[in-house]
Records
---
Amino acid sequence: MLKTTNAGDLRAAHAGQTVTLAGWVHRRRDHGNLIFIDLRDRAGVAQVVFNPELAPDAHNDAQRLRSEWVVQIVGEVSLRPEGSRNDNLPTGEIEVFAKELKVLAESKTPPFYINEDAQVDELLRMQYRYLDLRRPVMRDYLLLRHRIVKFMRDYLDERDFAEIETPILIKSTPEGARDYVVPSRVYPGKFYALPQSPQQLKQLLMVSGFERYFQIARCFRDEDLRADRQPEFTQLDLEMSFVDREDILALMEDLHVSLVKTLAPHLTVRTPIPRISHAESMAKYGTDRPDIRFEMHLADLTNVLSGTGFRVFQSVIASKGVIKAIAAPGMGDGTRRQADDLVTLARNFGAQGLVTIALKSTASSVETLTGDDVQSSAGKGLALEEIQSIARTVGANPGDLILIAAGPANTVHTVLGQLRAHLGHKLELVDPNELALVFIIDFPLFQWNEDENRWDAVHHPFTAPKDEHIGLLETDPGAVHANAYDIAANGMELAGGSIRIHRRDLQERVFKVLGYSAEQAQDRFGQLLEAFEYGAPPHGGFAGGIERITMMLSKGAQSIRDVMAFPKTQAGVDPLFGAPDVVEDKHLKELHIKIVEE
């Protein structure tokens, strides 16, 4: 080894020892007679002193040092003089007096500062990712990810789970998103697919009798990207036999709470984790991954305004739409521009418009409101009595701003749910040091696809319906609840799963509702259907994104890209390698593929 210890591991107990260090020059400070550098390695930084009286050759060589040069230093650890200690550094009690210096590699001037926590364009960071990962904050993100994965492995191993790898090259089967496909050279015109998840594979492992399986699995989905999505990602994939929903929820709760308490002690977590039905979550929060750290619940005004003379609301009620609202505390006395900005934001979320009602703090209560105390974008379309009734229903007080959305339920929930999340942060209603876990249960099994005029699976087609709803599969698919569950935190889904179908007859009935003929089901899912005929145990499980939980447990990560070593951009591009890219014609010829220019 070129070093005897890590620079970041040095402490007062090492005083008097001669050590050999190796790492990068983090900072260099020339104080004339003395030269100081901060030497950085994976463990942290330590101050090194070059004194010409103690080591003239090393001091002379140190004058050449620049940031990011790689060096080896032999020196003696010493306690810093009283008054010069740095309490902000774990190594702040000591410094190393250099005896020997060897330059192992020089460095060009980096395209951005590594020794400063400055804002850097993300595209530039990703282009020079190997430099970006030298920054202590990025190092800490990846080391946290390592500790999370290790914790999961140890936790599950102690509970008799076996880690089993499943194939990366499989057959393309519809499970929600588009598959990435891989052409076969040996079988021209045929393709493998990269797995969106090991869903069928882990169910086959349950049929195989392993009973408790997990895997830190790579998954691939060809879908539109956003801050919390990447074309390839990693998830904890887990399956258990001879269990019901309560068994799995208990495991999910203990795993996540233990993970937070062990690796993120800066976060508080509520226990027991509350449970909310999907219907309640959509009705109160406008989303199935709610942030429950603050109230601001959605209030249904449809019945309250059933007799309104306001034509916009009349039209929505007549078309079987809904009218809902939230109250933003303390924004009633704001400027008109602030309300208009929220209307613009609502349009960006999909709304055609937004009615705002500002209740001025000049009134002592909702009951004493007068026309002078109200400023509404509906003008005189809403009577004062209606505004008072709206305020009481939504729980607004003088000084609050009421935001009303009207239209199809899905649109209204999306708009107000996202406005609620935006205002929760803007108005500082959330505790940044709380991880508010919540279970969402009783999802619908199917959702109607208007564009394709068919039923789609809300999760995936292998999710079991609740026993009491099996009889509704053919007569009322929209009323069937899934034996499924998600765990969310602070507005983000962390993991989800379900009890699976384990009987061929029931699986075929679900496939039929989804529009698969018997031949199509056999062609695409025959391996699973046939396995169910050989004694399949009841089973279920869940999967959770490693990147998402790492982002949530970190101090400051804003995107899952921050906690991935080599991510893609939001456009799915790798600036470091320049992927995706063309391949040579000879490779295309071997694969019997021809690029057709449109």
---
Amino acid sequence: MAAMNSVHHVAGPGPGRTRGAGLATSLRAGLNAGLAVGAIQGLADGLVALARKGAPSLPAKLGCLGTSVMLYCALWTGLLVSLSLVLHPWFAKRESARSLGQRLSLLVTVGLALALFFELYWWTRPYVFWGRPATDPRRLAAALGMLIAAWFLSRAAVGCTSRLSRSLRWGLACCVPVLFGFGLVFGAAARGDAKDRGAVNPRNRELPNVLLFVVDAMRQDVLSSYGHPRVKTPAMDRLAARGVLFERAWCQAPFTWTSFGSLLTGKYPRRHGLVRMEPGYAMVPNITLPWHLKTASKLAGSGTQGARMRDEDWVGAAFLTGTLSQGSGLIRGFDQYYEAMVGHGLVVADSPLSVFRSELLFDLVREKVRQRFDKHPAASVARKWLSEHSSRRFVAMAHYYTTHTPYDPPSEFRARHCDPAYAGPIHSFYADARIAIESGKYVPSDADKAQIAHLYYAGVEQADAMIGEVLDELERKGVLDDTLVIVTSDHGEELGEHGLWEHNHMYETNLLVPLIMSWPKGMPQGVRVPALVELVDVVPTVCALLGLEPPYEKGLVDPDGKDRGAIDGQNLVPLMRGEVSSVRTYSYSENSQFLALRDERFKLIVPASALSEQGWEQWLAGTLPKEVGRPELFDLEQDAGETRECSAQHPEELKRLLAALRAWDATMPVPRSAMRQSDRDREAELVRFRNLGYTEHGVGGKPELVAPKGP
């Protein structure tokens, strides 16, 4: 508590100065400095964390702040006591650093400067040369500027303490032990660790675990089980041999959040409502798969018909990478979550303290450092968690990102595909390279295109290895055969086909996704299903396999009376067992600009502006602006690559599919206007301009050949 009172104190002449030169004085200065800096950063960082995540009550807020202060006091005490020992010989020799106050003032200045620098460096990352490595000269220069600014600000702050009255300094110092007390009490009472969830009991004993793997942006045709001649995916092939592979599975949106919404709720995008990706936007509460498993009633013939599952019957966890996050509202029902991209370690969702701590800079940096030494952080955390919970009934989702840009696989996977003789500029494929290509600023050679594809293939094999590691752990624990394993993707990826890259396009490269399900004790094995299925079918199919009623939220309607509580998916179990040959006539997908529909043979892509009768007439008359695109009909039986638009050859098919798409659109409760354009949509619009003959240099202009920037 004496830290704030001693910062400005300089010992006077006499014997006290001699005594002040000892080692004990340096240690005392380090201890007091550590407490002072820890209290300041603990309060500051704690307030930032509360602003980001909040806390349910005032006692909880105080408890969280107390925990933050304790954490940072322990951290900075250790650091500054160590620094005081290192600097002690220098202190003893310098006349200006012999007293306790002088040493304390210097150590607090150093500590505050470093604390402020780390805060500035971390929270300005999205704005200061985002996407550049830490060793980039521009980022190093910016970091040096931040450090210099932090030093002068900390010196000014320490100087200001001398102007505070002694009583005020003592009052502020006394707040620290009070916050310590709140932190200790709150930490003991707010564990929320869900350690008793998932215990095997009569309600869940006969049910399997549920494990969902979603490999972001993994197109269907790059798996060896789907016929790729080069890519080797033994883990997924093994699952297909032990289960059911769906040959024509469609996602409901070619971008992440919206597609995940359909996968986890069983609803089309404009029924679950998460129709765009932007900061601060989240899905309204919907019944998700893990949430439903904890509340569903059992069906007839399940042995305990009518019995309702309870929250404690399942323990759930989601292991996330990329932009998928708890804040999107998508992982409602999971008890714990891990967010690799933002640096959140394993967080207990119903523990305010755990959620709060995940936002502290200390925990964020610690997790990011840990990831530097872990090739597959999400997979390793998932493997450990599943191993620890293998004796319980669990529902888990592992979201992998190795097939999403940047395509930057580790050397052991890269070496299997990339040509060592390649001498072009694309060593890893980042978004800025894609932008350079799509904007016409760089024209990729055939070797460049092959390199990009090979990097992507390596990412597929990396994802397969990560899946295999988890499955091997479950097998070692003896629970793999008691686990329903599902492998799929939220959308596919363009690799230069149609002059496009990445995703958010409406071609089959983006919409066809892998879908493999395996549960040896409850499903057929080695079955391939050619019928049309969709990601919305996963939820009702899991329910059917587990003997549970599918979800339905009564009373959830929009102002026009359209039902938002019903699910759109179909139970695929009859398809697996060969009892029926199809469960739907059409499949649907959409983004902010286009809607798509397909049946067994034909596919229609329609710009949203042309969907209405008026818009269609404008298109027929040639008055619809070119930049909105044009309707396209493809005969997938004759043209699987969608290279030949065929509406002139099949006008009746065009009318039939258009009528079906309009009828479906009319049933959706969320209006099309809710699907606003994202930055990626606007980029895609510019690409369509270029493909129509418009460039930065005018119609038919020649793009400048420049190499895409590195990461």
---
Amino acid sequence: MNILMLYPKYPAETFWNANRAYQLFVQRKANLPPLGLLTLASYLPEEFEIRLIDRNIREESTEDYEWADVVFISLMAIQQEDYRHCLEKARSHKTPIAVGGPFTHAFPEEAKAEADWVCYGEAESIIDEFIDDLKNDRRGKQYEGGNKTNLEHAKVPRYELLNNLNDYAGMSVQFSRGCPFKCEFCDIIEIYGRVPRTKTPQQIVAEFSAIKKLDFRGFIFIVDDNFIGNKKKAKAMLTELADWNQAQAYPYKVLTEASLNLGDEDELLEKMAKANMNLVFVGIETPDPKLLKVMQKTQNIPGNPLAKLKKIRSYGINVLAGFILGFDNEDPRIFETQKQFIIDSGIGVSMLGLLVAIPHTQLSRRLKKEGRLLDDLVLVNQTVEGLNFIPKGTITKRTYLTEYAKLILDLNQPKTYFERITPALLSLGKRPGKGAYKAHFSETMIFVRQVLCLGFKEKGTRRYFWKTFLKVLFKNPRALEALCVEGTYYYHLSRHAKYVQSNILNYLENPSPRDVLDEVVADESVDDAVPVSA
């Protein structure tokens, strides 16, 4: 059986799609490969022929469809526009379609109506039934994969199916699934559960080794939504990964995502540093503890978040972070509060988005019960659109959109951006491990291209880039590596911010007739929804 695996394109303008910067500085076509499809491929029978095409790299041909017996598509909700294109092409060639990924959790009815086979949840537990149905052409099937997969039995993803690993800036590895916390807006706990399940240290080393054997040169992203969901097992894995990285002369720098309580864990941070982790994304969301309590993100409340960020950086690990606007009863000064906190935090790569009630989350269920959810307003891109519900408090959606557009543009102006990252870069500590700072020739060239672009070609940026560059060079040269990351994302975000502002202003001139821009809910009763003058 011939399987054509397709990974839809991301929209050109999202926070996460930094391909233009990677193409310019790193000279790679995209950021990360489709790990879900690579993982699924490892479970298919040996007699199946597989072609994997990431449409962010290249598009499939007519011959690919004529060759295929079945088209597999895995996607997130944000990829659904290109997904429709894939569906149309497959149908035009009368090729049956199997669909999986987070999209099926968010939009189960749409997936069911559009595909011949649909997997909800994890594929490992239903793979034998699915394969049998494929072989016997039993269509119209849906599978509830759940979230109980024992990852200690997981197979190594088939990275060799990628046409060229070095088309990507990074490779993806998954250590765990699930998160112990219960953030109201999050769909991760809905899909993967609240009991973190992990692979063994030996499995992770095997995946790193498989990537190295294929001569990949770049970073490796451990894509867990919360890497420290099980701290004990994370520490054990990091110990073995550190030994492997050292034995291999530190071929890879490692990135991951974690909750802010990472800043309380010295032993864990030390092990991360020894494993050559140089970057972590944390979900800060808001500095307001009252709002954190509302969103059930209580793990962020104890302690001083700025002190935690400082602790993380002291181990040589730079920080990216996520922030959200749109929670119930936000103070009208929240825009200035968020801005000042982001500046004080020193975080350059700040994913500031508007709150979206993702389907089938605690938040969407609550808002629906309260009569505030705008069901017909389907939003998936937090930095371009948001608030698919009537806000509670005193801030209307019109105000949110207007002030957010100003804020994201201001935060990504060259002066604001480079001045706030400078103190953070100067405070970045040294990661332990001989050879951990040895720069490859390709990394040196990335930095050269960045200096040429930001230091010479970008007129409005030059002054601020050079000021930061020279301070880091003379006061903390080990942070040049982090500056390179910050500069790459600055190039992307400074352009994305302009798009966001333009897109929002255009929307406000011609909003959806289903939207509610000038009403708020003043208290617990939805009957108190009142119009507010714009």
